[in-house]
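Follow-up to my post from last week.
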Amino acid sequence: MKGLAMHIANGIVNLPVSLAFAALAAIALTICVIRARQDLDDRLAPMAGLVAAFIFAVQMINYPVLPGVSGHLLGGALAVILVGPWVGALCVSVVLIVQSLVISDGGLSALGLNITNMALIGTAAGYLLVALLLRVVPRTNAGLGITAFTASVVSVVLASQGFILQYWLGGEIELKASLAEAAGWMAGVHTLIGVGEGIITAVTVLAVAKVRPDLVYALRGLRRAPTPSTVESAV
Amino acid sequence: MSRVKTVSFIVGGLLVALLLAGVVSNYASSSPDGLDSAARRGCTTDESGQITGGTCMAQSEKEHEVGGPLAEYGVSGVDNEFLSTGLSGVIGVLITFAVGAGLFWLVRKRRPDRQPTKVDAER
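User reply:
Got it. Predicted complex:
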């Protein structure tokens, strides 16, 4: 573990592009804070702290995906399912900020790049897919698991392409191979990483749903709809 | 209804996170992750992972600005690698929870119906 870093380091993407993404991230996170206030109550606030701490922990556990290549959870899909899109984006951001400031994982100047990819693109993609899938899959554990898995894979692959966009805009080194080749490699590797993340996310969400279904944000919206099953459970 | 209390749930969840970061993290793969592997493509590396030649993204990588005693998932001064990684994970989880829960608690919405009303004030 020692000596390993998982996020974009300093000097990979040039400073102007890094700062532009820092500004973008700052604006987006401000909007998230404003919207998160509507969701955050006495119960969700500690839950969101736990989700951030859990993502920090699981990010430390790299699993092999190819010979000589590993991957780890990013946590965007997990966060949005458990605490919603706005709080979820803030959860992943808290993890990235602590990692950058305390652990030196991810450059300080690259923080905007990392937040954009993992806390904004990853959570937005994850949430849109969750919102869509939960309306079409059967309302069973299997349906919830499939939703968590699929949202994780897509979220991770799209987050990885955020880095390609940033490198296209401001990569310091002119690559011999094309950037399209790098994009393909990133997408391929992150599909495999996404499978691992999907399994972890599905297992975690199903465990929470079993113990405290009311703490799964993605299920809350559904329960508000007056379906026969929710009327029964309300009685 | 035998529902797990919120406090018990949070404490239980934290214990799982501490176990993962404090112990299981030592069994993690030490190979470069997806991003790092992409950044090293085009370069040759030696056994310790140092770049020896070629052209790749990772060549322009610069030092981190902060460093500090917990840099790169180890505690400086702790020589035992298992302990060093585990301890950095435990401290990281606790800091993340404190910062996260603290910030979320500060910005949380206080429900109007839960706020002290005139009746409460008169009690």
